[in-house]
Write a structure and sequence with these properties.
alpha+beta; Nuclear Transport Factor 2, Chain: A; seven-stranded mixed β-sheet; 3 helices; 7 strands; globular
């Protein structure tokens, strides 16, 4: 199977996450933060992202910038690691079919230990990403989100690890 398709298939799965402990007041002084627009707050952005994935909604594709960098590390049980990279444009082209396949295979992903750090003109969002189907926790998952010209957060970079065979 094509590495790009595998990357997308592993990612587009049902999600839940735990955003406890992220203080709203941390972001109140951010220069473009507008509390009336949920997309501009990183906690709400990630919450929306997770809900769209959880409901297999193709609107999640719009949260990625065309110039985003998607990095995937596929870890094999024998120790070999394969790295893959997609642009936001490539990711978006493959996403619709991947969402459909994930929905039909019942993939489930949960997130915990959400951490959001302000960086330059955006935020670094990290979390433990657990695949129920693979019985695997990816503690290296993260996204870099930044504001576009319209003041909306977009995913500019994303990194995650996958395993090709389930540990269940």
């Amino acid at each position: 199977m094509n590495m790009k398709i595998i990357i997308v298939l592993f990612f587009f799965t049902t999600m839940a996450f735990n955003a406890e402990g992220v203080a709203d007041n941390e972001y109140k002084n951010y220069r473009v933060f507008n509390p009336d627009i949920a997309d501009e707050h990183p906690v709400e952005f990630f919450r929306r992202y997770a809900i769209l994935i959880q409901t297999y909604d193709e609107k999640v594709i719009g949260l990625y910038s065309d110039s985003a960098q998607i990095l995937v590390n596929m870890k094999h049980t024998h120790g070999l690691e394969k790295f893959g990279e997609l642009s936001g444009e490539e990711w978006k082209k493959l996403a619709k079919s991947a969402i459909w396949m994930s929905k039909n295979t019942g993939d489930k992903i949960t997130y915990s230990n959400l951490n959001i750090i302000k960086i330059d003109d955006g935020f670094r969002i990290s979390a433990d990403r657990y695949s129920v189907k693979a019985c695997y926790t990816d503690s290296s998952f993260y996204q870099i989100v930044k504001f576009n010209k319209e003041g909306k957060l977009k995913i500019m970079k994303e990194y995650f690890e996958v395993i090709p065979k389930s540990k269940c």
